Amino acid sequence: MKFYQKVLAGSAGATGAGLVAWKTMFPWLEYDIQLMKAGKKLYKLKDEAMKSFLIDKFEEKVAMTPKKPLVIFEDNIYTYEFIDQMACKVANIGKSWGLRRGDCVAMMIENEPSFVWTFLGFQKLGVAVAFINYNLKMHPLVHSVLAADPKYLITGASEQIIHSVLEVLQDFDKLPVYVQGLGTNPVPCGLHSLDDLMIQTLPTGVSPALRAGMTMSDIFCYIYTSGTTGSPKPAIISQLKGSSFGLVLSGCVDFCSSDTLYVPLPLYHSAGGGIGLIGVLSSGATMVLRRKFSARNFIEDCRKHNVTVMQYIGELFRYLLAQPASPLDSQHKIRAAFGNGLRKDIWVEVAKRFKIPHIVEFFGATEGPSMLLNVSGKPGAIGRLSPLLNALDSDPKALVKFDYGTAMPLRDKNGHCMKVGIGEPGLFLSRVPQHLIKDGSFKVYKSSDEANEKKLIRNAFVPGDLYFNFGDVFVMDKEYFIYFQDRIGDTFRWKGENVSTTELANVITAVPFVEDANVYGVSMPGNDGRAGMAAITINPGTSLSAKEMKELYDHVCEELPTYARPLFIRHLNQAIITGTFKQRKVELVKEGYDLSLVKDPLFFLDHSKKTFSPLKEQDLAKFLSSKL
């Protein structure tokens, strides 16, 4: 860190001809300095963050600015004081249930104020909260809830959530389920009303003594990730990591108490609920919250509520650009946008049309030990990986050669990972900080030691080192900016969500006539991420008639959230496997749904006919131009 500061001081002191020569010899150093300044600020903020917990910071803000808006939702204003009073009610209810520090409660609530006060209420007790994706259904929902080992499940009152919970209620192993937001409407049989308890409970403050003994290593919350295998897994977010989420906006875009943040991203994600919500709570700022993203209302919302900073994912801007252009597109007070997935092909168009002065792109993983930042405004770049930055980094990062089939690094004759050159695709690894290593390992997930170990690369460059495998492939240019190229292994990303190929295959093979399913992601023109495609084989004596395709359609629509449903089905006569009987995806991914390459029958998710319809040339253009 001291060397880091010396380099900054030296670079700031360079003037005149020396500065010109410096830029001529190493033009990329200018970008390094920009990132190092942000890094210095983040390090300073992290030191401060370690001195108090997020709930303590929130309660301080309540005392300082009780009447200040914390959440603006559907044109209603929820002040810091009001949110705290509701959180105190939740805390008192939790106390009456016998909850104590170290326990866990699962929460399945849409983007609404109750998410905020329910989360904060349990934080007052030192109780961890598992953020459940409200799109989940059937087995993935049951698995996600039970994996966190919660004492209670708190849900929102949307028809979709209640229906999904009632479908699997008997599989929750007598877990009490409380619904919040029904008001005077009757509570479905088997569920309980949290509203009744909230009405009966006083907003009396709870003593911080109830969370006495809490440390920065205690569980803050669980945020789920598909990871690389199987069903969604609860990634462990410690109090320290949770507090650190809130520093990112402050360090990168100077986010402070006078700012208003627009959060259209789901709060159960680490972007919306971590960087967004926690960033607002840490800074004492205001958050404009929308239940679901709306391209038509986005800029109008920002203009109406004087939004100064916005969050995004790449797909969000594609939807905004698809809206009819208007002179009002640039009439707003947004000074910075922070997010990930804004690709080079639309970056310049976004900046030009919406006139956002500062766009900061980041890359990270919920369970990962580090993140990348592009604070230089380089279109399409997700961060930097220069020799200087890596030399100064106590926990360096690397792009290494890898095997597409196994999603693991290749090793040289000495057993070490091999770094790639400029322009060569490389698997992204980041060394695990020493303070996160316990008993020789880095605990990523609450359960599943096998999945945990799969994310770790041991003895990568020197004996005894430990690196985290993000499972993503990047390419580096001559200025040491890096760009996302692909996600490999058993997960692909679609509509801003990670989709587990194993989980999807398990759902498809549950259909009686399907023998096996090889699931992978395929590129789609004009869309970020990859869409789901399944190459299936069927049981002997069966066929793929209209009846079977209708059955498959109904099954995936019932079992899976919209983003996880396969858009394409390929019927194989026999499975494509390796010599060790593992599924091969490389050829399948390469051929995709290209009718000139694929001679097997192809089908597409046809919502108009509520089935998987045969994919023909005349259907393809119409299908690809739709909203998918």
UniProtKB/TrEMBL annotation:
<dbReference type="GO" id="GO:0004467">
    <property type="term" value="F:long-chain fatty acid-CoA ligase activity"/>
</dbReference>
<dbReference type="InterPro" id="IPR020845">
    <property type="entry name" value="AMP-binding_CS"/>
</dbReference>
<dbReference type="InterPro" id="IPR025110">
    <property type="entry name" value="AMP-bd_C"/>
</dbReference>
<dbReference type="InterPro" id="IPR000873">
    <property type="entry name" value="AMP-dep_synth/lig_dom"/>
</dbReference>
<comment type="similarity">
    <text>Belongs to the ATP-dependent AMP-binding enzyme family.</text>
</comment>
<feature type="domain" description="AMP-binding enzyme C-terminal">
    <location>
        <begin position="503"/>
        <end position="580"/>
    </location>
</feature>
<dbReference type="GO" id="GO:0044539">
    <property type="term" value="P:long-chain fatty acid import into cell"/>
</dbReference>
<dbReference type="Pfam" id="PF00501">
    <property type="entry name" value="AMP-binding"/>
</dbReference>
<keyword id="KW-0276">Fatty acid metabolism</keyword>
<dbReference type="InterPro" id="IPR042099">
    <property type="entry name" value="ANL_N_sf"/>
</dbReference>
<dbReference type="GO" id="GO:0005886">
    <property type="term" value="C:plasma membrane"/>
</dbReference>
<protein>
    <recommendedName>
        <fullName>long-chain-fatty-acid--CoA ligase</fullName>
        <ecNumber>6.2.1.3</ecNumber>
    </recommendedName>
</protein>
<keyword id="KW-0443">Lipid metabolism</keyword>
<feature type="domain" description="AMP-dependent synthetase/ligase">
    <location>
        <begin position="58"/>
        <end position="385"/>
    </location>
</feature>
<dbReference type="GO" id="GO:0005324">
    <property type="term" value="F:long-chain fatty acid transmembrane transporter activity"/>
</dbReference>
<dbReference type="Pfam" id="PF13193">
    <property type="entry name" value="AMP-binding_C"/>
</dbReference>
<keyword id="KW-0436">Ligase</keyword>
<dbReference type="GO" id="GO:0005789">
    <property type="term" value="C:endoplasmic reticulum membrane"/>
</dbReference>
<dbReference type="InterPro" id="IPR045851">
    <property type="entry name" value="AMP-bd_C_sf"/>
</dbReference>
